[in-house]
Amino acid sequence: VGFSYNVFEDRTAGTFRGEFTYTWDMAVLDLRAPDLVGRVDRIDWSVGFDRNTWIHFLNKSTTFLFSLQVIGRHYQDYIPNEGELLGFPVTLNLIRRDSYIATLTARTTYYHGLIIPTLFLGLDFDGLLLSNFMLQYLVNNYLSFTLGINSTWGNEVQDIERDPFLKISEISLKTVLQF
Question: Are 135 and 123 in contact (CB under 8 A)?
């Protein structure tokens, strides 16, 4: 069961939005159960704010869309897995009882909507930061090219042989041809 809302607010010229869901009897891995399946209830929620904003020195002809949201998840009655798997003692914490993520997206267009830069930042409240920069070029109604760079920062992505703070996960070039 759930609900969502969107409310435009005149004073900030932005839209407040949110969602809430409650899921009963959801299947999760449980090493204590004979069939390895446990049942828990889950609560998911998000709140966000979207606003189009002029930044004239960066783009004189089009606004920037800024979108901020915070997402949360809570598992009711979840107990971390401690038990045996194939006769070996195992502790598995594949699910965090509570998790929170904040995201920020900024997007605009240049040259009559043909070039679209997008910046996305995602922060896991355990200290992991994800960034994504995409630059899309729309050649025509049928062909587009997108350059993307994904990076992660934080303690959970440390790699001793490389920079201990920054890890570039992916550089991509995507071509879309639609008929």
Answer: no
Q: Which residues touch 17 (CB under 8 Å, ≥6 apart)? A: 4, 5, 6, 7, 47, 48, 49, 50, 69
Cα 91-92-94 angle, rounded to 5 deg:
165
Written as six digits, the tokens of 47 are: 């709140």
Cβ contact 18:45 at 8 Å: yes
Segment 94-106 mean pLDDT: 87
Look up residue 68 and give its two tokens.
């901020």
How far is residue 104's CA from residue 101's CA, in Å, rounded to a whole number? 10
Closest CA to 121 of 133, 111, 113: 133
Structure tokens that stand for 119 in this block: 């910046």
Instruction: Report residue 80 CA to chain centroid gap.
Output: 24
Q: Give the model confidence (pLDDT) of 130-153 as tens digits.
A: 899 999 999 998 999 999 998 887
Tokens of 100: 């929170």
For the question of whether the overall pTM of this predicted structure is more than 0.70, the answer is yes
Under a CB-based contact definition with an 8 Å cutoff, are residues 15 and 6 in contact? yes
Asked if 50 and 15 touch (Cβ cutoff 8 Å), the reply is: yes
Rounded Cα gap, residues 165 and 144, in angstroms = 33
Q: Could you give the CA distance from residue 154 to residue 57 in angstroms, rounded to a whole number?
A: 32
